[in-house]
Amino acid sequence: MADVTIRSEQACFGGTIGFYSHASTEIGTEMKFSVFVPAQASARPLPALYFLAGLTCTEETFMIKANALRHAAELGLVLVAPDTSPRGLGLPGEDEDWDFGTGAGFYLDAEAEPWRRNYRMYSYVTRELPALVEARFPVDTARRGVFGHSMGGHGALVAALRNPQAYRSVSAFAPICNPVAVPWGEKAFGNYLGPDRARWASWDASELLKQGSRFAGPVLVDQGLKDEFLGPQLRPDALEAAAAGAGQELVLRRHEGYDHSYWFIQTFIEDHLKWHAERLRA
Questions:
Q1: Catalytic residue positions?
Q2: pLDDT tens per residue, range 219-241
Q3: What is the DSSP string of 163-201?
Q4: Quick one: how far is CA 276 from the chain centroid?
Q5: Banded model confidence at residue 104, pLDDT cuts 50, 70, 90
Q6: Dist CA 81 CA 61 (whole Å)
Q7: Cα angle at 151 between 147 and 154, to 5 degrees?
Q8: What is the 3-state secondary structure (H, E, C) of 233-265?
Q9: Contact 17/68 with Cβ under 8 angstroms?
Q10: How far is residue 109's CA from residue 13's CA, in Å, rounded to a whole number?
Q11: Mean pLDDT calculated for residue range 146-167
Q12: How far apart are alpha carbons 114 and 112 in whole angstroms?
């Protein structure tokens, strides 16, 4: 089994919610993650659903705030949530802004200095963490899904489009759909990847669709219309247009009155978990 440190484990809805850490080879430092294992796992391995959180969040945020564990327990889904970046590396500029560096890894593999050695969140969440979880927890290695919120929604879409064979299901809450064209993405990509914008497209879901990447099944996206970041940062219209041009099935639902918060996620989390459960059971 992989070497995992148990930080805490508690009973929850008949299963176990645990918080863990391990020495990551991809990141080059300790990484934290959380796992909810429903009671059904005592009888058989269960599908694993990975949640990628947004800016400033940690491995705890989703498990505590999303109201997801009750539904996951009923549906028989293992939930996994990694941290959103390396922490405490002491890199210059790492802790100066809330939307870059610590808590803002953007789920890519950095290419520019001084980030390229440690900011490898894409390889971490798509390869290293699943391998660790599959070695340590009772999950079915053939049934894996991914979803996320905001920066993590961007990460989930990119992970699924770049690795369609690795995931059976994908969804997102208020994702950053076209990061190459918005301030959050320009800041992160310019620093992590360097000034050559041609290299940015492979980390942008809308651009990946334009370049020929496809996910075999439908993609679910929920977006609140009262979201303060909708126009300047999220750009679901760009994803919608790219999907239509590419022939990618996209279920994009727009909701009056909802903002960018976890109140929005709580409202629609049951829908998303059922969406994934249907596809992970197939």
A1: 150, 227, 260
A2: 999 999 999 999 999 999 999 99
A3: -TTT-SEEEEES----GGGSHHHHHHHHHHH-S-GGGTG
A4: 14
A5: very high
A6: 9
A7: 55
A8: HHCHHHHHHHHHHHCCCEEEEEECCCCCCHHHH
A9: no
A10: 36
A11: 98
A12: 6
